[in-house]
Amino acid sequence: MNAKIFTQIALMVVAFVAPAIVNAQEMVDTIAAQELNEVVVKAPKVIRKADMDVYYPSRSAVENSRNGMQLLTNLMIPSLSVTDALGSIQAAGQSVQLRINGRVATVDQVKALLPETVKRVEWMDNPGLRYNGANYVLNFIVTNPTLGGSLQTEGRQALNMAWGDYFADAKFNNGRSQMEVGAQFKLTNKVKSYRDYKETFTYADGTSLTRTETPLGGNIDNTYGKLWGAYSYIKPDTTVFYVQASIAPTFSNAWVANGQLSLSDGSSDILLTDSNGDKGITPRVSAYLEQHFANRQTLVVDFNASFYNGKTYSDYMEQLPGATDYLTDIHTMIKDRNQAYAIEADYIKNWRNSRFTAGASYTANRNRSQYENLGVEIFHQRQDKAYFFAEYFQRINNISLTAGLGAQYTDFMFKETNQGNHSWNLRPQATIAYTLNRNHRFRLSFQSWQSTPSLAETNVAPQQIDGFQWRIGNPDLKTSTSYMLTLRYNFSQPRVEGSFGVRAFTSLDAITPYLYWNDNRLITSYENSKGLQNLTFFLSPQVEIIPTWMMASGHIQYRMERMRGTGYKLYNHNWSGNVSVMLTHWGFELVGQYVRAQHDLWGEKISWGENLSIIQLAYNWKNWQLGGGVIMPFGKYDQGSKMLSKWNTNEKHQRIDMKMPYISVSYNIQWGRQKRSANKIINADANTDKSTAGGR
């Protein structure tokens, strides 16, 4: 009787305080499951906050995972495309900024997470100003540090070609300190590929020439590795110190295409070889300090530095069948010794229903490129960026408001020609969210960001692509600004949840390529165009088909866009999306995935990424996961582009023999009590630039 009375009282208390708990999610880390005699109160699988969706891993999702990537796959977040076999994470065809406790992270670092330590995953589809223009942000929140250690290993190998991925990470804890070492090796060696290509050149006098390429084979290499080590010191709620060093060699990254050209003017067929690639090494160091003060104040400082020493090359050769001499013989070799340094500091102040964040960052790039094909001529470029922002969040009952302003200063200069540019740009951002109840929410957000010209877009060194095509950068380019307005409706039902929305985007001075004739040479250069505008409608559902057994999630979108530049106005509209289905029972996990790539209009070119299909079956036993799967079990691998210029109309399809069966083995062992790795709230961006060699 006492137990029944206690249970009824407990239920009444929970019913009374549950709405308050939901409304307080901005300030509370998690909703813990509480056992009240015979009643277990659990957190919802997803909590809708004003600026993010928060997902809580279920027990089955954790038990069926051996690393962070597998856990992310099992969460089945709508609109998120997670391809564990290829190590990629995308959303709506765009990149996703990964973070661990607020620190920018890589896919490898996400993979190194222990599933048992992931407390929640924060999904942000309209990131604030502190994320500096990221399209999407995925933030893993892990548990507080304790003692212990862990070892994670994973290997995946194809059965019919030289393709594989191997990974290991170990953590050792001693009091408040933690040491971590890890390694990764990715193998893609001489995988068969070919190219479908057809192009029509229209000369300035109105005459034209069509060249049709019949593929004669080719191959692709993409072999690289990474070694890392880190030390962290954590004093909970007071101090976090973190230092990391890594080195990432690219052993071979190359694409070779062989073909036979047929010309519309009746000339003899031509044999061609077109290849390009790069190899090099990138060491990187970082240091991080996070200090908490009284009255819920936090100061964070982060420093990063990276160096790149490598070479980029492109070779293009044409010859008549049976001939020993070449009609065209072009070799481009660029040796880079580039450096990047960045420092960032943020101040964060929290109140009960509001938050203020302000920060500043500085990034310096120093590039040295040596062109062996231009008489070993050397070019130096420097680029400096400073960014300042302030953002304020306020919750008033069911309405949440976020507003902020960023300012970015960009300056770049070529030493040899004394050419360059500098500019100040403002970055306003605002969001208003209305929560009807815990199952329905509306959000209207406005974002803006800047895109600075790259090394390849501004480098004045001429690069020959083929017999009459050249590429020359434009040092007079200016930083471009983009604006985006998104209206989104989020819904949650007992077995269906997701979002529906519309997004409008414009970039009035987007940096894009443009083509023009100079004598008998077709030049590709770059300009601040007249702008790109697009409108996108999207739906991202998650459906629990059979509770605890079968789940599906996906994203489908329809995009309409217009691009204007020098001498052209182009339109594009297309469907794209992805779908994943997962069936789990008795320790087995069956996952099927299909991705239809987004087709993007940029300048006078429509390009698309990988169309993929994957099926994988895995079995979990103790600390092991044994699995196998097939990449591209159906469909045809396709990645390519379509050029719509009046001077050069072409269509290119890169094909790979991707019908690839593979096996995988994962092992995860832990000892003692686990300690969370040190994680950052911010991360200064210090990525080195890399030259781009020519290529059709």
Topology:
Blueprint: H1 2-23, E1 34-36, E2 39-41, E3 46-48, E4 53-55, H2 59-63, H3 68-75, E5 80-83, E6 88-91, E7 94-95, E8 97-100, E9 103-105, H4 107-111, E10 118-124, E11 137-142, E12 149-158, E13 163-174, E14 177-188, E15 191-202, E16 208-235, E17 239-263, E18 270-293, E19 297-319, E20 328-350, E21 354-371, E22 377-396, E23 399-414, E24 419-437, E25 440-451, H5 455-458, E26 463-464, E27 469-471, E28 480-492, E29 496-507, E30 511-518, E31 521-528, E32 531-546, E33 550-565, E34 568-585, E35 588-596, E36 599-602, E37 605-608, E38 612-621, E39 624-631, E40 639-644, E41 648-656, E42 660-671
Beta strands, count: 42
pLDDT below 50 for ≥5 consecutive residues: which ranges? 1-43
Helix content: under 10%
| Category from helices, strands and their pairing | mainly beta
Number of helices: 5
Mean pLDDT: 85
- What is the alpha-carbon Rg in Å? 27 Å
Largest sheet: 22 strands, antiparallel, barrel
Q: Which quaternary structure do these chains form?
A: single chain
N- and C-termini, Cα separation: 81 Å
Query: What overall form do the CA principal axes indicate?
Result: globular
What amount of the residues lies in strands? over 45%
